[in-house]
Structures are given as structure tokens and as C-alpha cells.
Amino acid sequence: MVVCLLIGAKLSAQTTFCNPMNLSYRFRPDTPSRREAADPMIVLFQDKYFLFASKSGGYWVSDDLKGWQFITNKTLPWEDYAPTVVAIDNALYFLASGGKKIYQTTDPIKGNWEHVGEIDSSVTDPCLFLDTDKKLYLYYGCSNKTPTRAVELDRLNRFHYKGTSVPLIYPNKENNGFEMGGDDNTKNVNPWIEGSWMTKHNGKYYLQYAAPGTEVKSYCDAVYVADNPLGPYKFQSANPFSYKPQGFIAGAGHSGTFQDKFGNYWHIATMTISKKHMFERKLGLFPTVFDVDGTMRAYTGFGDYPYSFPTKKEANPESYFKGWMLLSYNKPVIVSSTLDAAKTKPEYAVNEEIRDWWSAKTGDKGEFITVDLQGKPTINAIQINFADVETKTLGRPTEQKGYQYLIESSDDNKTWKTVIDKSNSIEDLPHPYFELAKPIKARYIRLLNVNTPDGKFAISGLRIFGKGTGIKTEGVTDFEAKRDDNDGRIVKLSWKKVAGATGYNIRYGIATNKLYLNYIVYDKTEATIRSLIKGVNYWFTVDAFNEAGVVKSGKIISIHKQ
Fold first, then answer.
1. What domain range includes position 439?
2. By CB distance 3.0 to 4.6 Å, which of 60, 104, 272, 383 could disulfide with 433?
3. Rounded to two decimals, what is the model's pTM?
4. What is the CATH classification number for the domain harbouring 386?
């Protein structure tokens, strides 16, 4: 049986998106009731994008990375983690973590898959990779003790191993700060080296892996590079290459790298919430490039602000950042009711932290939350992030149920105009994002509940983007970066507060022209980053931003390797 649900078709006219991706994330079939999708990959096949993710009960298809159609059947092992899919000639081949069976389809839209072979032993976090010479390889491993491994598969003999698997990647937290555990890489525990992915570019093999653990904000991807698919591999000095430890939603690990229809690379990644359960996760999409030296990097700067969808071949990944700034951060909030004054505060809906939320006392019609923007800025886009408080749903809803609501604007908090009408929606989309066809100016934005399908009316982030009425802040000209004398993986930065700044984005890397890593902070004028690699020189700069835009610093400082 095949079930297809049209998800988000009305968003197809939009030119931008905002992480986390707005998908019909499935509720896990066990308690506590929470949504999960992780370990994703996208394959471009028959001129369509197919998205697979753990525990999703199916997969999605899109023509343009915008509107997604959901497909499921009873054949594939939906309760297994980390699916991998590879296109070979006119068919897709599927393998999931913990299993041995290979499935094939020539028509993934209809969702008819058949069992066509088995690998020699079950593996965790597999990645199937077809080389340009048509040889097929399997990369796998998910452990805090054993290495990532790889082996060639025999496509003509039901995918049995050709030869013996070889070890490739071992943990190295003693040198790599980003492999240390904890949200801020503060825990001295063995990292989970997992989530293998292979990309071939300009004759080089880029073997990607995730660390230190899916439940932490510092979850990221690093990469080794080789001239042959089975190695030997050399650690890329600019690592991790996919890293987003701060912001509204953090994490950019266990990902799949793919090319879009224009030839641009993208990295679809696991982003963490891990509040109701360790494996409560969502997905994010980041542009990825290889620089002139062959260094791989995913651009995650302002990675949960609006980005443009691809429309052409693009060499500069920063150009995807639309420049629409956050207007709702820490603004005054008015609500209809509050479930728990200590735990679900109204201000949690505007504090840029997905791990807490405001909740109304009920899910009834008429509950609302209003944000006072304290001025009349230009509003280009609005993102709602529902928190699913006290839900009972397990698995996918058996009936079509969706969040129903109105987004309204006002200049006086009395007379309201409808901006978005979703009062009759049946879309089960927990992160709806709306790019307004015409920007509006308003002081107040209200989200008015019509019906919450399950649980309370609760919001982890009512995020409003556009341009403020003020002017850009000045740049940061006075800052320091000091590497820890005893631990070269740690650097402490501090700077003087810039008048009018909402926050700061630290950019850093292994050269002045390779400031590929981003670390965003709000309000604070200091940060401790523990993701450095021992023995590598680094350069840092600190950009300031506010509602009017980003001002890059004219100062770059270096710290020597230790």
C-alpha cells in the first residue's frame, strides 16, 4: 500500500526557507510523545529530490526543495535508523542501519520496493557510494570505541563483500576539540564517531563523519580526504566543516551531501532539540562548497535565518543568506494564558532557544501570543515553531489533522489585519515559515489559535524577520582571542560592547581567507570555544549585528598553534 500526502505545496512560490526545515515530522510510536527525524540524506533521481531520514515512516519527494510530498509503504524497514540510498543506472537502492537487506525501486514515486540482495553482515549508520567507475562501496560505523570502516560491494553478486573491510576513522578527542562531548565540548568522554558519508569531487574522496553525539548542540561533521575510496585518508585541517553550536536551533551533524539541479552542493543535517527525549531531532539544510584548494565547508552562518533557494550555480555560499534580520528577539510578549509561570514563560517564545517554550493553558480556539516589535519595522517573513506540549500522538496521525491559526498585524494592539490565514489547514507542519509576497510594516504581530490538533497551544519560537527602523551598528574593532595555555583546543574571546548591537557572529578558521566556522552569541561580549584542533593556527574576527543588518569587523587576529 502506498500513501502520498501533499506537504507544503503552497510554499512553492517562496524564494526563501528557514531552518529547521518545515516537514511533516513523525511522532515516535513510543512514549514520550515527541517528533523525530535525523540522519538525513537527499538523492537527486529522475529530476526529483528524494529525502530519507530516520524513523520517519516513509520518505519525501520534491521538484524544487520547496514543497514536499510524503510517500510510504509496508516494504521498507521504517523503524530502522540512518537510511542510505544510492542511484545506480535507472534504480534506487536502499539500506538501513542495523539491517542487511538491500531494496530496489525504479519508481520511487509509486513507492514499490523489492528485496534484491543482502550484505554479509548487519552494519550501523551505512553509506552506499557509487564511484564514477561504477564500483560500489559501503561505509559504516557508529561507536565510541570502534572505527569507521569501508568495503567494496559486489553489485553482480547480490551485494556481497568483495574483500575485507578496512578501518578508516578513529576518534581523536585528545587533539580535536570538536570531538569532546557535551553541548559546549566540555565533557571528557569518548565521542561517537558515526554517520559516514562519501562525496567525490574533482577526483578526491571526501569521507565525512559526525561527532561527538547526536543529542548535543556541538554535533557536527568533519571530513577526511583521499585519492582512493578505501584510502589512505588524511584529516582536513579545516575541521569541522559543518558546525552550528549556537542559535535558535543548533547542530549540523550526521548529514548527507548532495548536488542540486544547478550543480551546487548542499548538506542536509541533523539538528538537535533533545528535550523530551535524547533523540528528539529535526533537519537543517546548508549550502556547501569546495574552495580553490579543495577544502570542503558547509556555510552555517546565520543558519536558522532566511536563506534563498538555489536558482543558479552559485560560487559564494554566503550569498544564500538573505540579510533579513531577526526583529522579535527578546521583545515584549502578551499572551492569553500561561500553563506554568515558572516553566513555560511567555518570553521563552522570543529568546532564540528551541529547547524551551511558552505554552497556553489549553489548545482551545482563542489562545494567542502577541509580540510587540516596539516600532514599525519592515516584515519580510515569519516563522512559527510549535512545541507540541502534552501531546498524546504516537506515530503518524491516522486522520488528517493540522495546526489551524491566524497570523495578524496591528499598529495599536486593537485593530487587526490578517496576514496569514491557516484557519482551515490540515497540514501537520510544526515549523511553518511564510515569506510575505509583499513586506508589511507593523508594530504588533499576533498568532491566534483556531485549533491545536493535540496538546496545548505552545510556541518555542515566534520568529519575525525583516529590517528594523534603526541604522546598522558599528563594527567590532576592539577584541581579544587567547588560546588556553594548557589546552590548545580552547580559545576565549572577549570584546567591547558595540552600541545598538543585538548580537555578534564570530567567524574563524585556519587562514585569513578561510574563516569558515561561525559561532553566534546574543547580548554577551565574550565566548569560549572548545572546538579547535591542537597544532593548528587560527584567525578570528567578530561581526556585530542588529535589526538593520550585519557589519563585518575590519580586524582579524591570529592565535598560534599549541
1. 326-467
2. 383
3. 0.95
4. 2.60.120.260
